[in-house]
Amino acid sequence: MTRGKQKIEAQKRNAEKNQKAKGSQLEARAVALKVSCPICKAQLANQNQLADHYSSKHPKEKPPSNSE
């Protein structure tokens, strides 16, 4: 067990270390999600997922062709 100044310094080090590991993944998510459904605006990663999305969520509609 540490006391006093050592304890405070150890807590600061641990807080900094844990803070760097955590963080928002919104930037990575925005980069990964490139395709969006024009009907419901759902964001998907690729054309295959868009085709699967259309078959399950919009069965009466035809998925758009590959525009990439």
Automatic annotation (TrEMBL):
Task: Name the UniProt key words of this record, in alphabetical order.
Answer: Cytoplasm, Metal-binding, Nucleus, Zinc, Zinc-finger
- The protein's superkingdom reads Eukaryota
A single GO CC term for this protein reads: nucleus
The UniProt entry, under PROSITE patterns, shows: ZINC_FINGER_C2H2_1 (PS00028), ZINC_FINGER_C2H2_2 (PS50157)
> Where does it reside?
Cytoplasm; Nucleus
Q: Does the keyword DNA-binding apply?
A: no
Biased composition, class Basic and acidic residues, residue ranges: 1-19
Q: What is its main location?
A: cytoplasm
PANTHER family given in the database record: GEO09665P1-RELATED (PTHR21213), ZINC FINGER PROTEIN 706 (PTHR21213:SF0)
Record protein name field:
C2H2-type domain-containing protein
**Native species:** Actinidia rufa
